[in-house]
Amino acid sequence: MRLTVVPGIAALVLISLVIFAPAGAAENTAGLEARVAALESELQALKSELATLRNTPAPVPEPVASPEPAATPEPTARSAQSWFGYGELNYTRPTSDPAEARFDLSRFVVGLGYRFSERTRLQSELEIEHAVSSAGDPGEVAIEQAYIEHELGRSLRAKMGLFLIPSGLLNENHEPTRYYGVFRNFVETAIIPTTWREGGVGLQGNTRGGLRWDAGLTTGFDLSRWDASSTDGADSPLGSIHQELALARAAELSTYLAADYLGRPGLRVGASVFTGGAGQRQPGLDNNRVTLWEAHARWQPGHWDLAALYAHGHISNTAAVNAGLVGMPTLIPENFYGWYGEAAWRGWRQHRWPLTPFVRYERFNTAASYSTLASGLAPPALPTRRAITAGVQLELAPGVIVKADYVDLATPEDGDRIDLGLGYEF
Predict the structure, then answer these.
(1) Of 29, 171, 215, 272, which one has the fewest beta carbons inside 10 Å?
(2) Residues 6 or more apart whose Cβ sits within 8 Å of residue 275
(3) Strands (E), 329-415
(4) C-alpha angle 398/104/406, rounded to 5°?
(5) Any idea what DSSP says for residue 144?
(6) pLDDT by residue (tens digit) across 101-121?
(7) CATH number 2.40.160.10 given to 79-425
(8) Where are the domains of the chain?
């Protein structure tokens, strides 16, 4: 660009000299001609130089080294984490005593899953009950699950940590969107404790025929926690001595075995057994074993959802322990049991108002018998309780359910009640 402009400038200079030359110079024609000739010579030289430069290829500039981009880390499973959780808001009103109506944020649970590799993952849940937890409030903060699971093969997994025991239909599926009724059923609350978790190791496998099996070695119950002065043991014998892996005594461990047949769509049939020492080698306790077994079935033909369960618990060698508790309100039962049948109709789930009505019948006894004591010292067995729950639930959105039910309890001291609830899971 610079050399292209030079000849033009020379021409302008030449013209300027001609036009603006002084008057005296016009007379000296020979001198003027000489100057013009010299300028023409310079102009020709500039044109020749320009032509040479035009025919010479421009030098290729050396590439400027650009900074290397930051190394992109290889994708790993350490970024594969997920949040999940559930919660429930409940209102209950006893029909015979409206002053005892309660409105409660009963559970708020947040879970974190983390995958360390394609075969190893963490599963954890943090639960807050009754909205506020402090020394003067009824709430509780607890770790519901915290375990590492490792896949040993396509159909075999091992886990270690704090995990739910595979007992019944509800314990591993206790989110409010997965069961009917505002509250969890009585049998899987009073007989099978909810939410029942232990610390230990477990194995889970699946067969090609549709059988899932579970087995493990875990902590168990601690009979030294029994409080004969309260009614907690009468409400749930095993729930009152459940350790929840909070500095759990582990002098005596427990084992469990569970199996479920899932080989046909909509069908689940299974059973489980859990057994282990509960004395934990504490003073006054000797060879006290807890055994809990149950059998269950669930069938979903068409629009129907049908379920049934039976559970039975036994605590051995309680006579010596109860001998020192005679006169207290709640002695340790030897046997306790419960069963229920349930039916729900899901035919309206695809309509504008996806309603699901249901009904459930239950019978359970938290102290069906006591071990033999000296004549007249053993308390009589508690009466078997009956409950009929009928209600409906509305699915507002996937994972959000509004519930309403009426509970008819046979024993006068229990009374009937109306329940309303909101539950969610994500």
Answers:
(1) 29
(2) 254, 255, 256, 289, 290, 291, 292
(3) 335-345, 355-369, 385-397, 400-409
(4) 75
(5) E
(6) 999 999 999 999 999 999 999
(7) yes
(8) 2-54, 79-425
